[in-house]
Write a structure and sequence with these properties.
The strands form 2 sheets. A 6-stranded antiparallel β-sheet has the order 3-4-8-7-6-5, covered by helices on one side. Strands 1-2 form a two-stranded antiparallel ribbon. The chain contains 1 helix and 8 strands. The chain starts with a strand and ends in a 5-residue tail after the last strand.
């Protein structure tokens, strides 16, 4: 992929982050249920479409499977690997940057 990346450790999971993104100061925001293990927020001049494509490539390469939890949302995509789940959310700001939020959770084993 043409997009360089750095790997960030979030709640024990290594998550690739596009190189053009800068980490935001930790803002406390309510995690989405199921993704309470850890979260990080980034911002940069990269389009939501590029972020979507970036994660489709890098997450598949790391063995993560996209799941359909948020199929009706255009601004987020969730991935599963083993019992860990990752939510990638991306929102464009009026200033033309995109805020990337990564949330990590653990799924309870199926009963």
């Amino acid at each position: 992929s043409g997009c360089k990346q750095t790997n960030q450790e979030i709640a024990g999971v290594s998550i690739p982050i596009p190189e053009k993104m800068t980490r935001n100061a930790d803002k406390s925001f309510a995690p989405i249920p199921g993704f309470e293990d850890g979260q990080a927020s980034y911002e940069g001049k990269i389009s939501p479409a590029d972020i979507f494509t970036f994660y489709q490539e890098v997450m598949a390469a790391k063995g993560w499977q996209p799941n359909s939890w948020f199929a009706d949302h255009k601004d987020r995509i969730a991935y599963t690997k083993g019992n860990r789940v990752v939510l990638i959310r991306y929102n464009q700001t009026p200033a033309g940057t995109t805020v990337l939020t990564v949330m990590v959770g653990t799924q309870n084993p199926p009963k």
